[in-house]
Amino acid sequence: MNKLVIATRASQLALWQAYHIKGRVEAEFPDIKVELNEITSKGDKILDKPLALVGGKGHFTKELEDAMLAGEADIAVHSLKDVPTYIPAGLSLAAITQRQDQSDVFLSHHFASLEELPEGSVVGTTSLRRRMQLLKIRPDLKVKDLRGNVNTRLRKLAEGQYDAIILAYIGLHRLDLLKDIPYTQKLPLDRMIPPMGQAALGIEIVNSNQKAKEIADFLNDEETFLVTQLERDFIAKIGAGCSAPVAVNATVKDQEVKIESMIGYPDGTHIMHESLTASLSDALSLGYQLAELMIAKGAKDILANAEKITFKEEMPQRL
After folding, report:
1. Known catalytic residue at 140
2. Element (H, E) at 115
3. Catalytic residue (one of 74, 82, 104, 163)
């Protein structure tokens, strides 16, 4: 094998991620020529509706997986948070790169922090998870959906369509866009719990491709693979759909693993917040355990009701 084809979304951030992996692979395997297969995903095409209304999963991954199954790519580079817990037969999520800063960041042209926003301010976010946690902290705010690529979202903020918006820090950092925003506030993880897999890249491969498996082994970070697998186990067990506000985060400190989750209604009510810890050697089932604990306390009912009320005024246009 002297050529590796990487399937990637065609967005600016996805291309940064793909070129980052391309550079790492070429440095470690100088005999391999790496090419990109740029693909526009369903999630990139639908820009006039909240993703929670589109239905199904894999908005940003299906077309890339189809390309691999058709022999048009050897691996795919994904933002791990976009990868469903179900992987098609013939493919596997073989590696997770070292996780970077998971924080969400508050951005505004007029207000220095979330605390300084006046009552009734309009805050933009696409995420039901952020909407839930934001309204839990500041129920007086108005949350408005925000779609488009990163530059489109920042333009809408600059035009005054929003008083503030909240995005993932890592994408803005990678694209060097934070310097153009007058006010930024990184939100601590205990205040805005991240989603499954935030700030890590997932490397999906064709199972029959042994060279791709070797490359994935090189790219994999064992600790990140463990904690993100716990987060994915939690999501799979609890059955959280794309219309469910769910935050889950696992971390390692001093040989101890902690996983915590928050679920609730998108209006910031009916919140359930739980966590579990275990030693690193006993942590493999921690995601399932946390899901079982929350299910026993009524999580399924909260998630079912959350889906019913999510964007209910827009549900007639559901695709």
Report:
1. no
2. none
3. 82
